[in-house]
Recover the amino acids of this structure.
């Protein structure tokens, strides 16, 4: 029933690192059935050919007793009769043998939805596991290679002679499988010059890709399979796009396949003339280099990280009766302030939340032409140039300012408690929309406070050396100074990580604090490094000082922000 001239290769999968097509074993399969529905019809014949590198390794062919009569129109098409299949084995005997024949191989079929659909349905009925094999459809592949003007029909009987197949298909399983082998090889020959040389390339090639973009595949030549940063450049050597990956080769190649669906990036690839790369010791180093390169080159096709310094801060103005203000400049060290905040909208939401519990004046101080009849106490005192609501005395205003200063400095969260009580009162009064709005504003405020307090504690450390397992019995090392990555390296298996960490620290970048709230790096870089350091498998090697956060800081409100996020998501689903 089956013959083989070579030992089956080891199990292959799409997770392997770029398996080349010449090293990939394919099993090209074709079925004959009693009809077109895998739900009600049955298989009458299986034919399959195993090939690798253009060489036939084995064939599998058998009739199958479907357990029912074959319709006359099917007999006229295939020539298979009830008499022929009567002595043939049933599918429960044939299917295990075929799955063993195809084990570890990529399945190929002409109109794979039909053939693979029948095989999967048979597995389901027999309660047999379906192998997690990659599947290539030569119909879809042909449609990606030829236009309809070139090839109006991709039926096997039309395509096989057009591509010079040595076997003429005749609606018998093994013959059609042999013809499909020739079709597959002809398609691979046409796709090779377009850069389709690996199994992932072939899987993507089933989807239509602009030939002009696919021809640029040579730009990935020489890019290593290592972590790092890549830069697409145009004819004038200007940087078009900067990205990062744990596998530079695979990531850069993906831009020339159907895996890339973003319109602006497709446009970028057509303009690109060269791809540069920088190999990095660790993924963290690659992420930081990417951010710095984007900030330096301002590539027009990057949207993220182009303005890493564009953050916002909430602080009190330096007036007798201070106001809350949103500014884009980091305040001097020691000044009570909340930040960095990544968007002005979030900053304003945090201000609105604070104002709800501590109603500081919002006016600018200029005298209005027609003041209201009931101005605030500060206006009556002549200390405020515009009316605003809610102040009975200057002492009350001072208490509000003190609560805000304590909140921004991480000394107290009593203001947050007041805001939560306000939300509960709104809910008790069945003012649910107002309560939800207040909840979301409080969540933004708490998140911003917690991030700022974590970042302030982190960037105050002069030097921090950390290590993380690399998954290959080695360690990824990072030297961090005032929140800036000063050095990175990898201690491979057998290398003393402590000695390497000491060596990295000796040669690391000198970083001096400059007195700002973020002493030595952009907020984006420091937050990226902090997220890395806070992972559970990261180990602290050395620190020049202790690492602590306010005991009564916003970090204690983590459960509230999680619940608020869940409630907000549920409300969006309902809406």
């Amino acid at each position: 029933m089956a013959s083989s001239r070579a030992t089956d290769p080891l199990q292959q999968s799409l997770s392997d690192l770029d398996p080349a097509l010449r090293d990939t074993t394919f099993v090209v399969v074709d079925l004959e059935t009693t009809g077109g529905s895998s739900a009600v019809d049955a298989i009458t014949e299986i034919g399959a050919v195993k090939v690798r590198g253009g060489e036939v390794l084995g064939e599998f062919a058998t009739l199958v007793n479907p357990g029912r009569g074959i319709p006359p129109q099917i007999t006229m098409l295939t020539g298979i009769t009830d008499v022929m299949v009567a002595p043939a084995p049933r599918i429960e005997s044939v299917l295990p043998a075929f799955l063993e024949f195809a084990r570890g191989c990529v399945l190929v079929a002409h109109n794979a939805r039909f053939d693979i659909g029948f095989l999967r349905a048979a597995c389901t009925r027999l309660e047999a596991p379906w192998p997690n094999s990659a599947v290539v459809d030569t119909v879809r592949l042909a449609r990606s290679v030829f236009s309809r003007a070139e090839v109006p029909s991709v039926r096997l009987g039309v395509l096989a002679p057009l591509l010079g197949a040595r076997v003429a298909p005749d609606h018998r399983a093994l013959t059609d499988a042999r013809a499909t082998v020739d079709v597959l090889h002809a398609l691979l020959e046409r796709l090779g010059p377009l850069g389709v040389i690996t199994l992932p390339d072939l899987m993507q090639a089933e989807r239509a890709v602009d030939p002009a973009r696919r021809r640029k595949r040579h730009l990935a030549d020489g890019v290593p399979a290592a972590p790092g940063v890549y830069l697409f450049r145009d004819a004038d050597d200007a940087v078009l796009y900067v990205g990062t990956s744990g596998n530079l080769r695979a990531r850069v190649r993906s831009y020339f396949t159907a895996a890339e669906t973003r319109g602006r990036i497709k446009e970028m690839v057509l303009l690109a003339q060269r791809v540069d790369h920088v190999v990095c010791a660790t993924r963290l180093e690659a992420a930081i280099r990417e951010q710095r390169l984007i900030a330096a080159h301002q590539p027009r096709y990057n949207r993220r990280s182009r303005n890493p310094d564009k953050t916002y801060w909430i602080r009190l103005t330096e007036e007798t009766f201070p106001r809350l203000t949103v500014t884009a400049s980091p305040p001097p060290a020691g000044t009570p302030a909340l930040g960095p905040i990544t968007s002005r909208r979030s900053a304003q939401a945090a201000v609105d939340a604070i104002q709800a519990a501590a109603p500081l004046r919002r006016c600018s101080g200029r005298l209005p032409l027609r003041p209201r009849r009931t101005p605030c106490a500060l206006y009556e005192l002549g200390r405020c140039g515009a009316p605003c609501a809610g102040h009975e005395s200057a002492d009350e205003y001072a208490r509000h300012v003190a609560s805000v200063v304590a909140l921004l400095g991480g000394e107290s969260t009593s203001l947050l408690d007041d805001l939560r009580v306000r939300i509960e009162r709104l809910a008790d009064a069945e003012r649910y929309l107002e309560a939800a709005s207040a909840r979301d504003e409080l969540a933004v405020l708490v998140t911003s406070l917690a991030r700022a307090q974590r970042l302030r504690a982190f960037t105050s450390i002069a030097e921090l050396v950390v290590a993380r397992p690399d998954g290959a019995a080695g360690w990824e090392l990072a030297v961090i100074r005032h929140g800036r990555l000063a050095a990175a390296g990898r201690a491979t298996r057998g290398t003393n990580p402590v000695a390497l960490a000491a060596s990295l620290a000796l040669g690391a970048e000198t970083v001096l604090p400059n007195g700002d709230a973020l002493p030595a790096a952009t907020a984006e870089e420091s937050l990226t490094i902090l997220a890395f350091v806070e992972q559970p498998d990261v180990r602290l090697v050395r620190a020049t000082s202790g690492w602590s956060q306010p005991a009564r800081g916003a970090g204690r409100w983590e459960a509230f922000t999680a619940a608020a996020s869940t409630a907000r998501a549920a409300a969006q689903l309902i809406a």
